[in-house]
């Protein structure tokens, strides 16, 4: 019975591994070896994120002479992101660790409108 369950899970393991194995090697190397990293939260689609990542990495390399990894966080639409950010700051406030320099692990909110950014 144990062999049958292993055989049943093998296709699932292969299916999960395929996107990681097919990712271009240069992309893996940049993310793993980059001395800098930026974390961006956005409601934008994957195609927008990929294009922005490529262009920003090229710009950063020209400007600073080193690589940067772009890590995307996607928690939903704009209102979900605003709620996520507010919740992260609220947790810090409740823990007594809130300050003007508080770090919630997000460097940039890319998307939304003027109203959301002003808040």
Overall description:
With about 120 residues, the chain is mainly alpha-helical. Helix content is about 60%, strand content about 10%. The chain has five helices and three strands. It has helices spanning about 1-20, 25-35, 45-65, 80-95, 115-119; strands spanning about 35-40, 70-75, 110. The chain has a three-stranded parallel beta sheet. The longest helix is centred in the first third of the chain and has 21 residues, at about 1-20. It is extended.
Summarize the structure.
This protein has 119 residues and is mainly alpha-helical. Helix content is 60%, strand content 12%.
Main β-sheet, in a few words? 3 strands, parallel
Strand order of the largest sheet: 2-1-3
Helix and strand pattern: HHEHEHEH
Using only CA atoms, what is the Rg? Answer: 19 Å
Q: Which of globular, elongated, flat, extended, rod-shaped describes the shape? A: extended
SS-derived structural category: mainly alpha
**Overall average residue pLDDT:** 80
User: Fraction of residues in helices?
Assistant: 55-70%
Topology:
Elements: H1 2-22, H2 25-33, E1 36-41, H3 46-64, E2 68-73, H4 78-94, E3 108-109, H5 114-118
Parallel strand pairs: 1-2, 1-3
List descriptors.
single chain, 119 residues, mainly alpha, 3-stranded parallel β-sheet, 5 helices, 3 strands, extended
């Amino acid at each position: 019975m144990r062999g049958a369950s292993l055989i049943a899970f093998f296709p699932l393991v292969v299916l999960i591994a395929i996107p990681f194995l097919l990712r271009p090697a240069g992309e893996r190397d940049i993310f793993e070896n980059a001395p800098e990293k930026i974390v961006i939260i956005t409601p934008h689609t994957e195609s927008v994120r990929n294009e922005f990542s490529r262009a920003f990495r090229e710009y950063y390399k020209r400007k600073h002479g080193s690589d940067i990894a772009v890590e995307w966080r996607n928690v939903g639409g704009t209102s979900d992101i605003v709620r996520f950010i507010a919740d992260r700051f609220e947790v810090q406030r409740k823990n007594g660790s809130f300050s003007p320099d508080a770090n919630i692990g997000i460097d940039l909110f890319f998307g939304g409108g003027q109203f959301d950014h002003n808040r």
